[in-house]
Design a protein that fits this description.
Elements: E1 2-5, E2 13-18, E3 21-23, E4 26-28, E5 30-36, E6 42-47, H1 52-62
Antiparallel strand pairs: 1-2, 2-5, 3-4, 5-6
Length: 74
């Protein structure tokens, strides 16, 4: 199952990640895909800690494409 996540402050970044699973008591790595809809950059990652949204958030921080303190336009 694939889940989606878009940071509230970066709606132009789309992230998808696999659901967390355990096999024999061991965490299975989660696959994470991220894409910026402004510049088209995409990246994949593997999450071993069970925090795939942190990978998406870090990618979003790199793809603000505006002054960080400027107001967000709806």
């Amino acid at each position: 199952m694939t889940l989606q996540y878009r940071p509230a402050w970066a709606k132009h970044v789309e992230g998808r990640y696999s659901q967390a699973m355990l096999v024999d008591g061991e965490r299975v790595p989660q696959f994470v895909e991220m894409k910026c809809e402004v510049c088209g950059d995409a990246r994949r990652a593997t999450c071993h800690q069970g925090m795939p949204r942190s990978h998406i958030t870090k990618f979003a921080q790199e793809h603000l494409h505006r002054a960080p303190m400027a107001p967000i336009k709806p």
